[in-house]
Specification:
about 325 residues, alpha/beta, UDP-galactose 4-epimerase, domain 1, seven-stranded parallel sheet, three-stranded mixed sheet, 13 helices, 12 strands
Length: about 325
């Protein structure tokens, strides 16, 4: 692995950005966090002397170039509202043009399993699995990553896609499992997407940062996509059983399957958007990351038991703080 220059995290305010920033800071590397809100970035990264905070407008080419100036590597974490996935390709097109104009050498997209569509053959799947999405969100993510991969090799520019499964972690509100931890801590019923007895793969988000940090200084990784898997599979019911046991309680769950999502979607746009992706709950897709391990060495995986404990403790602290502030 080679030493590398400064890394910029574009769309850094979310949980994945926090994990990658923590890994860069722990390695003693200066990095830049880029987002729309200075307040959000200051709240998350203001304590780290290695972090430089920069505000951008991803619709403005001048702003993109300015945000990328002086960086060797950009890690792209920019999210869009779940009902606005059509924004992904044009945002990526603008960002790639801006960072290349700024002289950035390497680009990492943190991707998803959406471009694969339904799993073919047996799980877990390798990187040679067909990318044939049957959903709108999958097609938008596929178009996004195709732009990234097509840019590889242009004037020495290097790109890669790191594909993750669904995620969870302490305080990660956008996780499918988050309400289980809060429900256990608050002694209430948790809302969960069903079915809840189907094995599913989740990655513990704090495990992602160290891998991305290594990829920023691994030139041989570029020009393709890689898988980063979780610590095997688990069912949502098993997660609930362990989380509620930590609270000394029996699980209390309200399960929303595809039918209920359709009904809820009449009133809630987010629920409506979850319907087309519900196949990932009924037809699990599990990743094999042996190729990545062969490239960069052993991949640290937090066990589900340890991850659930940390998530529950974070939720318990949050609930206690909320109660004490009333």
């Amino acid at each position: 692995m080679q030493a590398t220059g400064k890394v910029g995290l574009f769309g850094a305010a979310g949980a994945a950005g926090q994990s990658i920033g923590a890994a860069l800071g722990a390695a003693g590397r200066d990095y830049r966090v880029v987002g729309r809100s200075r307040e959000a970035l200051q709240r998350t990264f203001g304590h780290d002397p290695h972090a430089e905070i920069v505000i951008w407008n991803p619709d403005d080419p001048t702003s993109i170039r300015a945000a990328a100036a002086g960086l060797q590597t950009v890690v792209y974490l920019v999210g869009v509202p779940y009902d606005q996935f059509a924004q992904h390709p044009p945002l990526m097109e603008k960002t790639l043009a801006g960072v290349m104009a700024a002289g950035v050498e390497r680009f990492i997209l943190i991707g998803t399993v959406y471009p694969y569509g339904r799993a073919r053959g047996s799980n877990p799947i390798h990187e040679d699995h067909p990318r044939e999405p049957h959903t709108f969100k999958g097609r938008m993510r596929l178009a996004q990553e195709n732009l990234v991969l097509a840019a590889h090799g242009q004037n020495g520019f290097k790109t890669l896609v790191l594909r993750l499964p669904d995620f969870y972690g302490p305080g990660v509100e956008r996780s499918l499992l988050h309400d289980i931890f809060v429900g256990a801590a608050a002694a209430r019923r948790a809302q969960v997407l069903g079915p809840i007895d189907m094995p599913h793969e989740f990655i513990y988000l704090p495990d992602v940062g160290p891998v991305v940090e290594r990829l920023t200084r691994t030139p041989d990784a570029y020009g393709r996509w890689w898988h980063l898997a979780g610590a095997g599979t688990i069912t949502p019911r098993e997660v609930a059983r362990e989380a509620y046991a930590l609270a000394g309680r029996e699980p209390k769950l309200m399960v929303a399957g595809k039918g209920m999502l359709r009904v809820l979607g009449l009133f809630n746009p987010l629920m409506r958007e979850l319907v087309e992706m519900n196949y990932l709950m009924t037809e699990p897709l599990v990743l094999d990351d042996s190729a990545l391990a062969a490239l960069i060495g052993p991949l640290r995986k937090t066990s589900y038991r340890e991850g659930i404990r940390r998530c529950f403790e974070a939720a318990r602290d949050e609930v206690s703080e909320r109660v004490s502030s009333r």
